[in-house]
């Protein structure tokens, strides 16, 4: 048997032994590299064995790279979209000189963002980022003395702010989420004698899924920083293996005590009394707290309900969609059947069988112990999430 540490030590001797800050320039965990006029994405399809960055010269390239999973994870997709718009505008000869007027620039920006948002449908962060840039562009175009250069410059700055905000909000979620999770575990009479917790997570919600640090994995990082993490369990996350390839990589990189399990082993692990809490990310949280996240999330929420294990969602407010009343309205992305039938290009499934491959499912709000955001926990009234008033009070 090869331990996670030995395996990664063998594969990545240069990374091992150094706990590097997320989004550090030297870090293997930096999904997005940006400086004005230049955007690169870590090709996550090659992880954990190769670290290669691809250039993103414009929105068209970003659309393809998002669809093809070069970058994935709701917040990282939102940041990528915003920054792709920024580099494209920067390249258009001096940020706006290519446009005849502010109105022309505004129309181009709106059309380009409408196209970008079609790359992946379920995660709302990309739509949120595009809407934010559209609003900034509209305001700049309506200002006295508006110019194309001014409109483009305002959009570039807004895209850059979006990236910076994502890291800050992940750190805030780590603080709020670790406190809420520890309190819930204590209230459930779970955890170790020393007050430490064994936490299970699903998919990848870490530095690789965000601008840095992570959402659910950020909560696990925060627990570890506080000396409260007894153990982290990550699911392999079939069929795309974001857990086995990416979360396992991040946990090993940070040298956290961690174990990889098959998705189908989660209930058995809970039954064995090894899980004190579950925390996962989200692709879209709607008005009643129903939450779309990686396929298998609903099964985890149901199992937690059965065993009385607190089940948490960690998601920035950019993942909240208060306009949809319930999870039934969320468009669930269907992905290619070969993700299920093939392994490394080789067919492993019997010929002649059909395939159903939804990328996400919806965990009902009623099964969610708490929704962690960068602004604190979403309030509940009589057990029901108050998403709309929460967002309204934040001016969002
Ligand atoms: O298909 P993916 O890899 O983009 O799915 C990602 C997830 O479902 C994550 O759990 C979610 O986006 C939260 S990422 C912080």
UniProtKB/TrEMBL annotation:
Q: Where is the active site?
A: 283
Residues marked Transition state stabilizer (site): 203
Domain of life where this protein originates = Eukaryota
Q: Where in the cell is it found?
A: Cytoplasm; Nucleus
Q: Family per UniProt? A: Belongs to the methylthioribose kinase family. Belongs to the eIF-2B alpha/beta/delta subunits family. MtnA subfamily.
Q: What is the stated purpose of this protein?
A: Catalyzes the interconversion of methylthioribose-1-phosphate (MTR-1-P) into methylthioribulose-1-phosphate (MTRu-1-P).
Quaternary structure and partners: Homodimer.
Q: What name goes with this protein?
A: Methylthioribose-1-phosphate isomerase
Q: Which residues of the full protein are shown?
A: 41 to 436 of 878
């Amino acid at each position: 048997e090869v331990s996670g540490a030995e395996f990664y030590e063998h594969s990545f001797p240069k990374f091992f032994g150094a706990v590097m800050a997320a989004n550090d320039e030297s870090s293997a965990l930096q999904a997005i590299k940006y400086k004005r006029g230049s955007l690169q994405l870590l090709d996550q399809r090659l992880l954990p064995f190769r670290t290669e960055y691809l250039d993103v010269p414009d929105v068209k390239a970003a659309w393809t790279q998002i669809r093809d999973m070069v970058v994935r994870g709701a917040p990282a997709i939102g940041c990528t979209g915003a920054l792709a718009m920024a580099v494209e505008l920067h390249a258009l000869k001096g940020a706006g000189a290519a446009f005849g007027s502010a109105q022309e620039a505004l129309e181009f920006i709106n059309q380009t963002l409408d196209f970008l948002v079609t790359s992946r449908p379920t995660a709302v962060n990309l739509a949120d980022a595009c809407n934010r840039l559209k609003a900034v562009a509209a305001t700049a175009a309506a200002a006295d003395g508006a110019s194309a250069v001014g409109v483009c410059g305002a959009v570039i700055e807004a895209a850059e702010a979006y990236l910076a905000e994502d890291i800050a909000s992940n750190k805030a979620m780590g603080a709020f989420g670790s406190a809420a999770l520890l309190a819930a575990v204590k209230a459930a009479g779970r955890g170790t004698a020393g007050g430490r917790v064994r936490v299970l997570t699903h998919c990848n919600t870490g530095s690789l899924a965000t601008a840095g640090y992570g959402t659910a994995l950020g909560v696990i990082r925060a627990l570890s920083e506080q000396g409260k993490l007894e153990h982290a369990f990550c699911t392999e996350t079939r069929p795309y293996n974001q857990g086995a390839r990416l979360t396992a990589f991040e946990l090993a990189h940070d040298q956290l005590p961690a174990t990889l399990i098959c998705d189908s082993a989660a209930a058995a692990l809970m039954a064995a009394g090894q899980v004190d809490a579950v925390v996962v990310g989200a692709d879209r949280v709607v008005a009643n707290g129903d939450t779309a996240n990686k396929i298998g999330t609903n099964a985890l929420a149901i199992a937690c309900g059965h065993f009385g294990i607190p089940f948490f969602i960690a998601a920035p407010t950019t993942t909240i969609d208060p306009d949809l009343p319930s999870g039934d309205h969320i468009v669930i992305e269907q992905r290619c059947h070969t993700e299920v039938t093939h392994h490394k290009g080789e067919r492993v499934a019997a010929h002649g069988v059909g395939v159903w491959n939804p990328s996400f499912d919806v965990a009902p709000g009623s099964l969610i112990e708490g929704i962690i955001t960068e602004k604190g926990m979403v309030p509940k009234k009589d057990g029901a999430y108050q998403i709309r008033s929460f967002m309204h009070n934040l001016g969002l």
